[in-house]
Amino acid sequence: MFRMKISDSKTFKSVLTAISAIVDEATFNIGPDGIKLRAMDPSRVAMVDFEMRRTSFDEYEVEDESKVCINLSELLKLLKRAGKDDVVEVSLDKESGRFMVTMRGRYTRTFNMPTLEVSEEEVPEPRITFNVRVTLTTSDLQDVLKDAALVSDNVRIEANEEDMVMVAKGDIAGAKIEIKKGSDALISIEAKEPSKATFSLSYLSEIVNAASDTSDIVTLEFSTDMPIRLDFRQRYDGKLSYLLAPRIEVE
Amino acid sequence: MKILRRKILKKVQRELPWINHILSDEKVAGDLNPSAPNLEIHVRDGSPCLICRGSRMLCGKTRCPAVTKLYSFLRVKNLVNSDKIFGSSPPGVFVGRIGYPYVYAGPLVPPVLGDTSLFDTPEKWVGKTIEEIIDFRTGLIRGKFLVNVKKPLSGERFLDRTLEIALSRDSVNTEVLFKRKPSGSFLFDDEVQPMGPSAPLLKIEVENPKVDRRIEKAHGDSDLRAEEAILDLYKGEVPVSRIQRAFSAGAFGLKRQRRLVPTRWSITAVDSSISRRLIEDDVKDKPVISEYRVYSFNYLGNRFVILAMPSKWRYEWIEAWYPGTLWNPQGGSIAIGSDWESYQGRTAYASLGGCYYAVRLAVAEALSRERRQAGVVAMREIHPSFIMPLGVWINRECVREALKQEGEKFDTLSEALTYVSSKFSISIDEWIKNSALLKDALYQERITKYLH
């Protein structure tokens, strides 16, 4: 059983929107310390890792570990009705087994919706050694991806201690985007060794656009021909990160 | 006598400059004599037919599509050389789309009595020759009246009769009186679908049609949404062409929302809504197939190959036109177009149009029958011997045909692609280059690889 209350409904909405880019039917682990979710998208190309600790909530009552599966687009439809001053409370109704969403503002409304069969799939944390770590603003990353998407479906990301370069090659046109150490767009860059890997722009853009409302700062970590991790710094106590598998380069 | 015949020949040659090179003897001339009045032959500006006139194969096809259609058209025209016909509607109706919301609509009636159902049942056409299919299309005379599709007035006599015909189970004997002799104009063209003569309606009488009870039930329920009606009927094994015909005539939906739907859009609407529901309800939550599969079917210069891959539901449709085929008349190289959807579906209309949805229906129904899901790439290679468009049904029915067969099974994608390659003339690299799903399967890695 659980019941939690959050006055920052905007954050709650935006983080659920960010998760819905990867999964629509989301199975949350709800425990005494907070709520967690780790899930892959249907084609198993991308993964989301989310955590919101109990201190992020105004009130948090959880007796023991449980799992609940919710259709996120249905839940978001309801949450859209919450105004910015509304306090949102979610809970599981013991008798009906339904998920309850209460919004308290100038008046009170309570919605109920069904829970779905929980996914028993436990996604382990992938063990990957990242050789590059780049931090930049989310809006700069969004712009970079928009530039690359003009010419291609894929982008190759290369980085060393001095700069990060993104290369997109299309049938007709190409693009090269350089972000150098010391420029305003680059907050920090670390590289154990120069690395490069190629990723699908549709996945990358979808992830970054979905997460952009939750975060101003993003850290990218990758290694040559390995998955990329995008860690979006959250305003609450918790985390939101994604892992995206690379594309094999063929020329 | 001989002199008279020569005269006819000369006269016909004069009137039909487009084809005077094939009017070599008097018999052909008599057969094609357009001065059976009211026949005007038009050519679009800039059409290669203007120069070619059926003689030089400028369009690159193996046979002149315009002459083939004209033969069929004239045969029919000679059978309806009056301002009325008495024939059996297959049943069939037509709703045009030009001038929307004011369009021409009306019944389709051939100058033949009896069971004519085959004329308007594309589900039964696979295997027929191109001439037979042209004859089915051209053989249907369109009686037409102008109607506002959004405000079809009930009690409007032509509309009521048209709806009666659309709801019928069997061919319906119909007597039609036209304002003038049907025939009018023939478009000498290599790109439009064959169509029969038409004329405005003056009077129409329908001999008590036997209604398909399943369709009548959906028609009588004015609280049943059109989409639900379509799906219920499909699940009740009503043929798609019959559902589409009734939907087009405005037979389904909430009472106030009922309206006529142009034939062309009604076909796509029915294909897309049935397949969408099958995918959501009967495919996406089912187990993934456990191997790579390849199905194929060839028909009238079209080669269809369907590759099913073990993955969650996703779908792609790729069409490749050889130079000299319909959408690639002047090109020196092959033209390829594709559309696809991920597990989440599409948010925009497919650029390739109705065929995308027609094939999606064939694919979705095969998977739902088997209670499996897969990632499916359906491919069509069109050769110049496919001389004219015949409608989206050819895609739906050929892919259905392909998926009825056993299919070949493979353990790896590369084996499956080698087999696909053996079925096509276009190289597999070219297909891969134009396929989002194949590129994804070949080049995109999965997270699962890193989870150990």
The total count of strands of chain A amounts to 18
What's the order of the H and E elements of chain B? HHEHHEEEHEHEEEHHHHEEEEHEHEHHH
Radius of gyration of chain A: 20 Å
How far apart lie the N and C ends of chain B?
93 Å
**H and E order of chain A:** EHEEEEEHEEEEHEEEEEHEEE
Overall outline of chain A: elongated
Mean pLDDT of chain B: 85
Outline the biggest β-sheet of chain B. 6 strands, mixed
Helix content of chain A: 10-25%
Radius of gyration of chain B (CA) equals: 24 Å
Low-confidence stretches of chain B: none
Q: Mind summarizing the main beta sheet of chain A?
A: 9 strands, antiparallel
Helix tally of chain A equals 4
User: Are there runs of chain A of 5+ residues with pLDDT below 50, and where?
Assistant: none
| Helix amount of chain B | 25-40%
Principal-axes geometry of chain B comes out as globular
Biggest sheet: strand arrangement of chain A:
6-2-3-4-18-17-16-10-14
What does this 3D model show about the protein?
The complex is a heterodimer of chains A (251) and B (452). Helices cover 17% and strands 44% of the residues of chain A. In chain A, strand 12 (163-169) and strand 13 (174-180) form a beta hairpin. In chain A, the strands form 3 sheets. A 9-stranded antiparallel β-sheet of chain A has the order 6-2-3-4-18-17-16-10-14. A 5-stranded antiparallel β-sheet of chain A has the order 5-1-7-8-9, with helices on one face. Chain A is of the alpha+beta class. In chain B, 36% of the residues lie in helices and 20% in strands. The mean pLDDT of chain B is 85. The radius of gyration of chain B is 24 Å and the shape is globular. By secondary structure, chain B is an alpha+beta fold. At the A-B interface, loops of A face helix 15 of B.
